Each structure stands twice: as structure tokens, then as C-alpha cells.
């Protein structure tokens, strides 16, 4: 079955462009938690609150007075004790007072040592301010421990040398190595900061499709999953639903039967926590096919071919198929779609047999 036929048979939810809360930039579904980083800054910076600043939230003021840092950066610094008020740790929502002394000590990574690499990327749209790409499975978004090369950042540095001066080569958000689909990248600092703000100010729209264990009527009992997510207590590479986690809300908009035990789901994020879709659906008993971290083995009731296809599906069956945002320069509402990838279509064909 082709991607076009898939979209005809399993029509996507016709949800209008709307304002939603995607959570913190770089604290999004399907990757290790790490907020958007600015260029490398070393040493201590201070700022004394002026009369005109009184009453402003600390995180908002910090992103204004400490040049080059986003609000997500500032929140991270506050949480880590790297941004103090009068030498004391306070909360991001602290309302500053006249004469307060803000002290910021931060050292953030940059990508000055990352090398351009001629890695093919699927560009869905580009102009002077933004690039939208359809990321394939297996492509790590940015360099980190164990993967300094072969990443999307390396590819961007090759194809778009002008992004080299930007934090994370213009990345605004990310999806996991084995998740496919749409990402927006900024080409200017102004565009990057604007898009990061949109992620926090409810003007980015993201819709995912996934193949999950369960029949539609069972899955749709959990149409709204509201459960906080935090780092797993003992397995630090995993996330988990826990009382001390950050608020996390996932909406399952639609579920269509592929088989009596598996469904294709349209999922919308209201927040953007690490591994959110995978954790939430697993938590309510409907893990994604192929998820080696949060999934389960194939269930009874499958043919040999279906059982083999489910057991050997090489990644979590999760695809970011719709992305919408306000263009940072023109103010126009932009919306993009990426068809389901070939491995999704092949698995769905097996279920249809």
C-alpha cells in the first residue's frame, strides 16, 4: 500500500490549525531532556533590577537582559541554581523587585567543533528565515556523547553554512533518532528566538501518527492522558509517569483498527515532555509497536507473518506528520504534512492481509 493510499484509507484527523502548548523548546517528545542552548557563554553576568522591571517574572526578564539566551535557557539555569536572585535560588515565576541583583553563571555548549557533512536531507520547505525537513528514521538530530558525527546538525552545517553561527545550527525542537517526520529549523537568530517563544506561547501545532497496541474503543477511553512525566528513578535513560514529574498532557484524537489488536492513532501534544507519547501510551496499556524501551512483545491472535512483522519492526512506530507555526517574519500561518514512511505502510499492509 502506498503512502497516498494509506492517507485515503486511514484519513488523517481534520483538525484545524490551533494554538496549543508544546512545552519547553528542546524538552519535547522523543529525545533526552535538554532545553535549547545558546552560544557558549563563560563567566558571571549580573543585572540589577530597575524600576521598570518590577513585577516581571524572573525567567521572562532573564531572557531579555542576558543576551543570547532563550526563556527556556533561563528556566533551566534557575532550576540548576545557575541564576540567582540576591544570591538565593528562587522559582522561575518569581516577580522581581527593584534593586534585586540577578547573577547568572552559565557555560553552554556550542557547535563550533562540529563539522559539515554531506548527508542528504529531505527539505519540505525553505526560505530566508526557516527550513522545514522530513527527518528519516535513524538520523540523530544533534551531536552528543557517542554521536559527534552523522547527525542532522552536521548535515545542516553542510547544506546551510549560514546557520553555523546559531545555537544548535538553528534547531528549535527535535524528535528522537528513530522517530520520523517534520522539524522546523531557523536560519536567523531572530527567527530562532521567535519560534522558541512560539513553542512556549501556544502557537505551534504538531500532530503525530503511531501504531499502538489495542483496539480503537479501548484506546479512545484514554483520549486525554494527563499524567506528569519525569526521569525514571533507577533507569536514568528512561522516562516514567511519576508524581514529581513535569505536567504532561497528550490527546488521542482518533484511532482506526488495523487489526483487532492494533490501531493507527492520531495524537496531538499539549505539552512536550521527553518521550511523552511513548511513555503516556505505554502507561495506559497501549504501547507503540517497535518501542524497545516502553513496548511489549507481540500479542496472541496474530498470523505468523503479522507476529514476525511486529516483532522485527526496527523502531517505535511514531511519525510527526503535521507541523504548523506562525512564520517569524511574515506572520503567516504555515502548515506542512509528511506522508507516512515506507516501513509504516509495509507494516499496515501486513495487518491488512
TrEMBL record:
GO biological process, any: enzyme-directed rRNA pseudouridine synthesis
Residues in RNA-binding S4 domain copies: 56-120
PROSITE patterns named among the record's database cross-references: PSI_RLU, S4
Record keyword Lipoprotein present: no
EC numbers on record: 5.4.99.-
Region of interest (Disordered), ranges: 23-43
First-level EC class: isomerase
Catalysed reactions, semicolon-separated: uridine(1911/1915/1917) in 23S rRNA = pseudouridine(1911/1915/1917) in 23S rRNA; a uridine in RNA = a pseudouridine in RNA
GO molecular-function term, one example from the UniProt record: RNA binding
Cited Pfam families: PseudoU_synth_2, S4
Classification via SUPFAM superfamilies: Alpha-L RNA-binding motif, Pseudouridine synthase
Catalytic machinery residues: 176
Entry superkingdom: Bacteria
Role summary: Responsible for synthesis of pseudouridine from uracil.
NCBIfam families: rluA_subfam (TIGR00005)
Protein name per UniProt: Pseudouridine synthase
Higher taxonomy: Bacteria, Pseudomonadati, Pseudomonadota, Gammaproteobacteria, Moraxellales
Amino acid at each position: 500500500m502506498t503512502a497516498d493510499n494509506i492517507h485515503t484509507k486511514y484519513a488523517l484527523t481534520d483538525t484545524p490549525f490551533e494554538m496549543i502548548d508544546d512545552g519547553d523548546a528542546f524538552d519535547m517528545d522523543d529525545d533526552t531532556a535538554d532545553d535549547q542552548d545558546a552560544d557558549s557563554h563563560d563567566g558571571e553576568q549580573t543585572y540589577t533590577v530597575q524600576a521598570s522591571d518590577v513585577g516581571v517574572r524572573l525567567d521572562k526578564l532573564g531572557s531579555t537582559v542576558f543576551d543570547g539566551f532563550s526563556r527556556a535557557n533561563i528556566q533551566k539555569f534557575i532550576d540548576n541554581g545557575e541564576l540567582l536572585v540576591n544570591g538565593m535560588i528562587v522559582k522561575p515565576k518569581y516577580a522581581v523587585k527593584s534593586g534585586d541583583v540577578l547573577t547568572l553563571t552559565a557555560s553552554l555548549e556550542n557547535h563550533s567543533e562540529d563539522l559539515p557533512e554531506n548527508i542528504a536531507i529531505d527539505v519540505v520547505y525553505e526560505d530566508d528565515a526557516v527550513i522545514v525537513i522530513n527527518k528519516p528514521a535513524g538520523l540523530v538530530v544533534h551531536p552528543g556523547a557517542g554521536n559527534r558525527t552523522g547527525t542532522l546538525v552536521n548535515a545542516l552545517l553542510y547544506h546551510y553554512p549560514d546557520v553555523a553561527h546559531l545555537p544548535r545550527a538553528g534547531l528549535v525542537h527535535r524528535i528522537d533518532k528513530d522517530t520520523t517526520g517534520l522539524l522546523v529549523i531557523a536560519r536567523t537568530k531572530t527567527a530562532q528566538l521567535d519560534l522558541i517563544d512560539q513553542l512556549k506561547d501556544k502557537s505551534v501545532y504538531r500532530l503525530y501518527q503511531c501504531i499502538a497496541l489495542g483496539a480503537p474503543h479501548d484506546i479512545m477511553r484514554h483520549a486525554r492522558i494527563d499524567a506528569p512525566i519525569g526521569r525514571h528513578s533507577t533507569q536514568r535513560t528512561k522516562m516514567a509517569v511519576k508524581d514529581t514529574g513535569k505536567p504532561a498532557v497528550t490527546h488521542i484524537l482518533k484511532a482506526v483498527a488495523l487489526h483487532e489488536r492494533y490501531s493507527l492513532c492520531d495524537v496531538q501534544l499539549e505539552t512536550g515532555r521527553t518521550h511523552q507519547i511513548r511513555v503516556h501510551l505505554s502507561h495506559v496499556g497501549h504501547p507503540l509497536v517497535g518501542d524497545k524501551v516502553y513496548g511489549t512483545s507481540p500479542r496472541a491472535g496474530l498470523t505468523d507473518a503479522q507476529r514476525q512483522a511486529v516483532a522485527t519492526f526496527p523502531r517505535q512506530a511514531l511519525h510527526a506528520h503535521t507541523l504548523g507555526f506562525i512564520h517569524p517574519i511574515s506572520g503567516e500561518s504555515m502548515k506542512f504534512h509528511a506522508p507516512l514512511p515506507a516501513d509504516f505502510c509495509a507494516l499496515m499492509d501486513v495487518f491488512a492481509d
